[in-house]
Amino acid sequence: MKKKIGTSEVYMRKCKLTFAALICIFALISVSAAVSEKGLWVASIEKNGDSVVFANHSDSQENGGWIYLTGGKDIQLPQPLSFSYSGTNCVEKAGVVVKINKDKNEELSITYPYSTHPFYTEKQTVKMDYNGPSAFKKQAVNIYLVKGLGVSSMKQALVDAKCKSLGEIFKEGVNYNKTCATLDKCGDLSKPLTFSSLEPGSYGIIVTLADNKESNVTKVLSATCFEVVDYEMKTKAANNIKEGDNLDVEMSLKNAPANGEFTYGALLISEEAYKAEVKVDSNGTINGTDVSVNDFDLRDLGVNSTNYKSKLSKSEFTNAVQTLIGEGNGTISIGDKNQDTLSLTTFDLQPGKYFLFTGAYEPGKGLAGIDQQELTIGKEKTKTSP
Description:
6-stranded mixed β-sheet; Immunoglobulin-like; mainly beta; 10-stranded mixed β-sheet; disordered N terminus
């Protein structure tokens, strides 16, 4: 029987970085190596005598152990959004040990139960709730809102040699807010928490048990990440177009400076093709690891950069995305500097429902705005003979 755990977000920058991928997967889900409580916990990450253990999740929204965010602009997630892992249950590299609480031949499965994830602007209030299993009822918890903490930075903190211990994430100098709470009889927060007037940037929310007697062990019940972007993005595009017609997309960033430099992009993808079923099989080595998305091997993306810190070129990124979504399932376009009007060619797209995603990137800062809407491509009327 498959074990199911959950993640609010699955992030993988390069398929060759096996260990980094595992760090990302288990850094932002609930898991732990507390064998005496087997079933509640599923994995651990150990470094220099410190351990972070994560609580198990189910695919239930009511008691699966998820953090639920509201208050921003909801962006549609792939359906399904799932991850499955098979292979070794222990990986060690650079002094970091990841242990997975599973049998060697057992498959580990992750399914995210929510269909959307919010993005925010400065004026919007972030509201979070936590719905955990009853096994954690009446438990005291600490809730950390950490600025600058995303999946990538969590991974860096775990594998970077300069970070001496996992506990440094919560030591002085780190920009975070801490809230103490007690879960109710169902293992949930009694009422949602709100965070207002957040500056643009990446944020992480981590829920940990507070009554931990072992000072070098942090028990994480759940975690998630979100972005506060600088500007509200507006998109103008037709809700319905005929088969074969181009889709003209106009984008704007509300209150953005006139002298700003932005790169705009638009992605149109079929509702049926918009899914992310990630599968990893690994023996703990780079060469012994296979990673696929929707049964497509990521090594076939044609990305030439071997350094995971290197930035992809516009053409590399465009080609990789187009390869992943597949010909006939969608199209992507990225403009030149400050080109905020794009035309998407749809001649090879079949009639049906589509998602249109638009975004703006600011060099040196990152994502500046994001938007999403739905549209329909209708069948072209067949001409009849007189």
